[in-house]
Design a protein that fits this description.
By secondary structure, the protein is α+β, with helices and mostly antiparallel strands. It has 3 helices and 8 strands; from the N terminus they run αββββββαββα. A hairpin with an 8-residue loop joins β4 and β5. It is elongated, with a radius of gyration of 24 Å.
């Protein structure tokens, strides 16, 4: 009897926690699809305003850039280098990397402030050695509020209250 009570309380607590979890995730994918030769740059801007982003609600963000070798000079691939710059000034400025694998990095303070101010993130990649392909740029932003209010948590609460009511009616019928 006591275990049933504990299970009921745990279920009710889970329903309440699901109602109170308002963190959201916004994912913006920019299809860059550009080949960079030695000394060349490519830039693009992520804009998350059209995805329900509320200004000032970004808590953190990560950026993933998908790199591929262009296979023109396979012997050159281990020596290719790129510089990633986020925004005008950032803690990530001057990040030197090998563009033979995907790169993921967290946004620095100034980029996060800019994202909260206007919902955009400027990205620039420069080839400092070698040539490679940039496929996609994926920005994941964790926000305070979910961009779209999903009614599943409310439905769970109503379902839980319905089960509780049925249980109380059954218990009352036994007595």
């Amino acid at each position: 009897m006591f275990t049933k009570f504990v299970k009921s309380v745990a279920f009710a607590a889970a329903c309440l926690f699901s109602v109170n979890s308002f963190a959201g995730l916004i994912t913006d994918v920019e299809s860059v699809n550009k080949t960079l030769d030695f000394g060349k740059s490519v830039s693009w801007t992520h804009n998350i305003l059209d995805q329900g982003f509320d200004l000032g609600s970004a808590l953190s963000a990560t950026l993933t850039i998908e790199f591929r070798d262009d296979a023109k000079d396979p012997w050159y691939a281990p020596f290719e280098l790129a510089v990633v710059r986020l925004g005008n000034f950032d803690l990530q400025d001057g990040t030197l990397l090998s563009p033979t694998a995907d790169w993921t990095g967290a946004l620095g303070i100034s980029s996060l402030v800019k994202l909260n101010a206007d919902g955009t993130l400027f990205v620039k990649v420069t080839s400092t050695l070698g040539d490679f392909v940039i496929k996609n740029s994926i920005l994941n932003v964790v926000t305070k509020d979910a961009p779209v209010k999903v009614p599943e948590s409310s439905s769970l609460v109503l379902f839980g209250l319905g089960l509780l009511g049925l249980g109380l009616m059954r218990r009352k019928a036994r007595v």
